[in-house]
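Consider the tokenized backbone below.
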């Protein structure tokens, strides 16, 4: 009997006292990573660094109450931070109080949309963005973030515009490099990457941050052209709605907030499922959607920014031995301590070090090997086997990536979603049709003729399998493909319905018409191994008994053999 999981605090179901110590250690480890990265991601969003800490505390607490994952760490992330900057930047220039207020309002609206979607059980929305499109979008976003942080690493003024405009500005401004700043930035980057490579349990981001702060204090680097973060407001954030905004401001953010939610939900759900599978428990997608919603609501009400589940910090959490969301609550408590007593420590943090932390965090998202694999599928024999859909994956990833690089994050998000929907419709309208041949060992096994060129079909008979349901979107494609098979010398075509789970009235009408069209060429159409609901629809929609339906493919084949002995008319 399946144990009922509580609606709230479900991630603590079956908690054991033996888990307390591993959870506390994991929480301490994640805190060491989360604090510097939250400061860095806030700068990506274009708001003061402390806003990242404001967001983390309520997000961690509220997700632990509502979410279903024992391991997922929720907080500011690079992708949603960049999306936030792109969205808010379309309404107001950065650096103003209104910009910060709109950033907080975006978190609030994202939270409202997330809670509503979770209650409406819309967890399936994560599947609306295909993996290739999401991969291309994230790669484009990561490249945009990197090129936006490089000026801080080099100690020069940043450029405006899209990825290519910023990159060109950087290349044409290299004569203005601050060598002290570049040295700090590169050394910080080396520290983070080296510790990640050889000592993964050591929080490289925190080590780099502490070394950068010490270097500024000992060497007075801020007096030699190295920019530092500067004053960070200590204490807990103000609670409530952001000031100075009207209802129109919130309504204008509803559409963009849906896109932010979709991207954040997809990334967080993937991380949650990965570690749930390893630990042997289940993830409820609708609970995850609601959990992300309340996390963003809490962040918005605490003067924070948009948050989502983090794959990298979840990996740190799981690797440190976390067993439940007590680790997340520990991170929240330590972050409160940081806000109350440790913010002055980070005021001497070099901006170049912060940029290095950001670059090191997002460089892992630039998954060139994944794009290369998609390209190989496009160019190699697999594309010939699987047809246009295999080629579409690489093109979809490329279009999503270029959408971000050329048009910026928000238009790139819209392009990515549009490409996902288009790809879904394209695949639905172009199902794979397989010509079958029988294995000559007497066991009745039918296999793909393209994969077994050594086997030969029976003369005059074509057996074909449609690996999809039959419905209005693919009816014409299937009709044209079957017609193309009825070449000279073919007397019968057998449609194997074993992999056709459903059919609609449009497709049934197409089969009726196809039966008559083939009959006019002296070719008989048979339908074999139909599923119950397919048979019911065909029986109720066929105008006459022209299409012969058989429960068994051998019986259909026998009838086809008899037909093949008759000359074509």
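A designed sequence for it:
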């Amino acid at each position: 009997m399946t144990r009922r999981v509580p609606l709230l605090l479900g991630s603590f179901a079956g908690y054991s006292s033996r888990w307390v110590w591993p959870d506390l250690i994991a929480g301490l480890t994640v805190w060491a990573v989360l604090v510097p990265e939250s400061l860095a991601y806030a700068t990506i969003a274009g708001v003061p660094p402390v806003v990242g800490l404001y967001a983390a505390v309520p997000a961690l607490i509220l997700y632990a109450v509502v979410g279903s994952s024992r391991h997922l760490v929720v907080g500011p992330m690079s992708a949603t931070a960049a999306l936030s900057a792109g969205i808010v930047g379309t309404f107001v220039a950065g650096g103003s109080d209104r910009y910060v207020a709109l950033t907080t309002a975006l978190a609030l609206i994202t939270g409202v949309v997330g809670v509503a979607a979770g209650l409406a059980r819309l967890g399936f929305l994560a599947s609306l963005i295909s993996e290739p499109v999401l991969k291309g979008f994230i790669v484009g976003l990561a490249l945009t973030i990197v090129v936006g942080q490089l000026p801080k690493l080099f100690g020069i003024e940043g450029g405006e515009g899209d990825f290519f405009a910023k990159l060109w500005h950087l290349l044409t401004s290299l004569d203005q490099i601050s060598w002290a700043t570049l040295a700090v930035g590169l050394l910080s980057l080396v520290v983070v990457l080296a510790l990640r490579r050889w000592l993964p349990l050591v929080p490289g981001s925190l080590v780099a941050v502490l070394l950068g702060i010490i270097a500024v204090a000992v060497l007075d680097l801020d007096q030699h052209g190295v920019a530092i973060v500067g004053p960070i407001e200590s204490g807990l954030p103000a609670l409530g709605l952001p000031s100075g905004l009207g209802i129109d401001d919130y309504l204008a953010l509803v559409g963009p907030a849906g896109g932010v939610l979709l991207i954040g939900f997809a990334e967080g759900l993937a991380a949650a499922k990965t570690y749930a599978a390893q630990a042997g428990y289940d993830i409820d997608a609708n609970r995850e959607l609601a959990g992300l919603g309340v996390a963003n609501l809490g962040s918005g009400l605490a003067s924070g920014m948009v948050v989502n589940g983090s794959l990298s910090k979840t990996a740190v959490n799981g690797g440190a031995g976390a067993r439940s969301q007590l680790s997340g609550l520990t991170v929240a408590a330590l972050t409160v301590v940081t806000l109350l007593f440790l913010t002055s420590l980070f005021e001497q943090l070099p901006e170049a070090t912060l940029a290095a932390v950001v670059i090191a965090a997002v460089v892992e998202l630039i998954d060139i090997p994944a794009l290369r694999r998609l390209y190989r599928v496009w160019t190699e024999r697999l594309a010939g086997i699987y047809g246009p859909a295999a080629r579409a994956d690489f093109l979809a990833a490329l279009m999503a990536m270029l959408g971000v690089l050329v048009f910026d994050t928000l238009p790139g998000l819209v392009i990515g979603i549009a490409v996902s929907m288009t790809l879904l419709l394209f695949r639905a309208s172009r199902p794979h049709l397989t010509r079958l041949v029988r294995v000559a060992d007497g066991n009745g096994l039918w296999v793909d003729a393209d994969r077994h060129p050594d086997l030969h079909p029976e003369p005059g008979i074509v057996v074909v399998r449609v690996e999809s349901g039959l419905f209005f979107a693919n009816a014409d494609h299937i009709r044209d493909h079957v017609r193309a098979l009825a070449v000279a010398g073919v007397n019968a075509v057998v449609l194997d319905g074993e992999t056709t789970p459903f059919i609609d009235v449009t497709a049934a009408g197409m089969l009726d018409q196809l039966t008559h069209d083939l009959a006019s060429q002296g070719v008989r159409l048979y339908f074999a191994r139909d599923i119950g609901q397919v048979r019911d629809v065909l029986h109720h929609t066929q105008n006459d008994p022209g299409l012969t339906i058989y429960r068994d493919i051998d019986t259909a084949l026998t009838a086809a053999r008899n037909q093949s002995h008759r000359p074509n008319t």
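The chain has a mean pLDDT of 84.
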